[in-house]
Amino acid sequence: MGESCRLEIRNPCSFLFIHAFLVLLHLAAFASFAASPHRTNLVEAVLSEDLARQTDIIKSLVEANDPLIEQALTAWRGGSLYVLETNDTKTPILLDPVTDAEGSAKAIRLIDGEFVKGADGKPLVFAVADLTAADATSKLRKVIKATLDLFALGNPNPAMRRDAVIKLGQEQNPDYLPFFETRQKTEQNLEVVKALSEAVATTQLLSEDESVRLAAIGRLGTMRSINGLNFLQRLETEAKAAPAKYGEKTADALHKSIRDIQDYIQWGNFFGTAFRGLSLAAILLVAALGLAITFGLMGVINMAHGEVIMIGAYSAYVTQNVFAKWFGASGRGFDCYFIAALVVSFVVAGLVGLILERGVIRFLYKRPLESLLATWGVSLVLQQIIRHIFGAANVQVNSPSWLSGSFNVSDVLLGYNRLFVIGFAVFVVLLTYLLLTRTSLGLQIRAVMQNRHMASALGVRTDRVNMMTFAFGSGLAGMAGACLSQIGNVGPALGQYHIVDCFMIVVLGGVGSIVGTVSASLGVGVTNQILEPWLGSVLGKITVLAAIILFLQWRPAGLFVTRSRSLEG
Predict the structure, then answer these.
(1) Residue in 496, 477, 471, 460 with CA at minimum distance from that of residue 425
(2) Which residues touch 150 (CB under 8 Å, ≥6 apart)?
(3) What are phi and psi of 395, to 5 degrees?
(4) Does one domain contain both 431 and 299?
């Protein structure tokens, strides 16, 4: 294998031709560096004694996007850019940061970035005391600082350009205005264009020209600029303290723009909270769907349902660790772990539910109090098992790259993980509906829910239906736990935070009703998220619970009543 990969050139002419070609490529690359117009201009600025010319050149270097120029400007401003004089020739140089034992260092030519070499071709070393620093007045240093600050405007990454514009705009430096306005004419990225407009308007708030100031205030209000709100409020405070200086028009414009931005923020917070509530409702829907079916089928109050959710979340954690061991903690292989985690969570939680039904619950049918106490004891046992295996502290479940991040809609962040959870809940509801209405198992489940004794008399194996339905409901709860791992903490008490909500949804929607479960999940999840910022987490849940109790006083069977042929079955 090693012999087949070795390149042998048997023809000397071919070898000479290839060598010459490589030399030409090297010389062409060197020539492109040496002929860099930005470096040539900077050399001219260093050697020039005309302040106006120096200023114009330095300002033109904003678009250079050259690390050596940025390093040279920083050194010039700090007094560590030198001019080497040899044979009546002046050469701007930088000293290499690596010094020898005597404190001397190699010199780097600014024009091409190469070391200054002697007649023998070896790099020369210089001591700082033997060199003359390039002159820089206070005004020139100020111009250099502005140029260095504006260097980020030429960054090829749009996100970096946007962040740099936002940061520079908050300085309200009028020296930056020409650069912002020039960049606006060529910028293609919409987010950066918006940031530039905000930066221009924010800077113009300090203008002495009232017309310019009023236009900037109005533009920030029209743009609903969240970044500009603090500056508008600060200017409003100054306007109230000095009404004669700013005038009534400025005060009115400030009041209107501030009010528009604050209203915009309030609506954004509302929709953002509603979106988070929708994603929580989606998870509660998947978790409560299985509980609604089993509760309606068997009349069992399963207090261990929350721990089944927890098991699903820990199954996702274990799957993540397995994939990280196989494929590493990043990359395409690792990114597939969550799809596998959903399957693993369904299977593991379904098996736990199957064991629970076969080992405990099937002996407690028609005994609601005993089943409640027994499943509550099972929930405590499952929590202790998880604490013993994984510890009492929360574990970290990372999102794959395709679920990380978010996109912005009118300053409302929509997380990819939450969008996936919502879509997944819709898929699960459709799958459950098809299972109940288009399969033999679904027909048997509906028959047992309407009249258990009649279904048994017709040959339906009710014990088998109970077992399969409980396993399916537990599997749904496990997948809900896997989804919860993407938007919240995973710990032994995870299930306890959601079990009450699940039962509220089942009772409010109507026992055994899919439509009722969907409606109640939306109501409880979204309402909880909207009320919590105003009333707090505990008081918000109490308010929702009180509203549900009052509703059930009026409609005890819930939103949607499941039809049954037997009041006892």
Answers:
(1) 477
(2) 62, 168, 176, 179
(3) -110, 155
(4) yes
The parent domain of residue 71 ranges over 12-142
Q: Do residues 412 and 487 both lie within one domain?
A: yes
Residue 158 lies in a domain: yes
Residue 432 lies in a domain: yes
- With b for 16 or more beta-carbon neighbours within 10 A and e for fewer, the 475-485 pattern comes to bbbbbbbbbbb
* Rounded alpha-carbon distances, angstroms, from residue 391 to 379, 397, 489, 492: 17, 15, 14, 8
What pLDDT does residue 147 have? 82
For the cut 60, the answer to whether the pLDDT of residue 99 exceeds it is yes
| Domain annotation covers residue 5 | no
Q: Cβ contacts of residue 152 below 8 Å, gap of 6+?
A: 160, 161, 163, 164, 168
Distance, CA of 101 to CA of 82 (rounded, Å): 21
CB-based contacts of 379, cutoff 8 Å, min separation 6: 303, 304, 306, 307, 495
414 sits in which H/E element: strand 412-415
Q: What is d(CA 44, CA 47) in angstroms, rounded to the nearest whole number?
A: 5
Examine the pLDDT at 30 and tell me if it is beyond 70: no
* pLDDT score at 475: 92
Could you count the other beta carbons within 10 Å of the beta carbon of residue 449?
23
453 and 514 co-located in one domain? yes
Q: Tell whether pTM > 0.90.
A: no
Of the listed ranges 40-54, 134-148, 352-366, 510-524, the one predicted with least confidence: 510-524
Mean confidence (pLDDT) of the chain: 82
Is there a single domain that holds both residue 299 and residue 343?
A: yes
Q: Which amino acid is at 7?
A: L
pLDDT over threshold 70, residue 26 = no
Q: What is the pLDDT at residue 562?
A: 59
CA distance 257 to 242: 19
